[in-house]
Write a structure and sequence with these properties.
FecR family protein, three-stranded mixed β-sheet, alpha+beta, Jelly Rolls, Phage tail protein beta-alpha-beta fold, transmembrane, 323 residues, 18 strands, membrane, 13-stranded mixed β-sheet, rod-shaped, FecR_C
Amino acid sequence: MDKDLFNNFISGNSNDEENQQLLDQLNRSPEKLNAARKSYFGIVHLLGSSPNKIWLNSRFQHLQQKQRRRMLFLKTSKIAAFLILAAFVGGILTWIHKTPETLKWTTITLQRGECRVIILPDSSQVQLAPASTLSYPLHFGKEQREVHLDGEAYFDVRKDRQKPFIVSTQSSRLEVTGTSFNMSSYSSDDQDVIMLVEGGVKLNFFDQAGAQTGQIELKPYQKAVYDKVSQEVTDSRFRDSDLNDWSHRKLSFRNERFVDLAKTLERYYDVDIIFKNKALQEILLNGDFEKETLIDILETIKLLTPFSYQLDTSTNTIYLSAL
């Protein structure tokens, strides 16, 4: 602060230009303004009041108000910044919660004649049958465990009531929390077959357009068959011996059409089977085989059903003819 300007101001000898210069200096330094104010009012107390007293006091008050407004603005800005940050973080968390998880999937496809045991991310176990495809995420989501099946598999599902286990196929959707079951749902077949061993399952069936056509809940040792053509669902009881075990080449069938059994044999033994007679396709068969060759199975069936077969080794094709 210029002492000459200040002294002229106190004595009343300063002009408007000098007053403005002094004011500019004091405005740039609140400390100097406060000191000038104390000095000024000390002198005024001794010499008497002056119009400049009012001027300096008003300028001092003006600067103080300016400082308070600045402090209030900074305080308000901090609060506003905090609220904006909180809203932003809250919005991000809400967005994360609502945004569907992006899962990385893997797909395993087996050829005819192959079978494999697969361990899922939650330690559930799947015995995948020949000519089957299983797709599943490398890590299950937060709300459910879903896999996609085209073929046949035996599932031993780890229990988790918070995250249901779902098997989706082209024509059905099965939901469990923890259970063991066998599911056959080849997209090329006319039927889906589900056999529940332990726990409980809820099944929904759909047509090709995706419209729901049926629903059923199964209890242990209950079997559901969904006919994709008629869109009808039937259920029945079964025994342990009726379950297939591909890892040990165990094959069981009950009241099964020859043409449907032939599809299973094609997948098990990696062959093509062609019927020369349509009537032969509709014959119903029962049987239990374990570690038998395809020829052994055909020879056994021949004991009850008169037919002949021919094997073309060049194309790995078997031709069946009624007698």
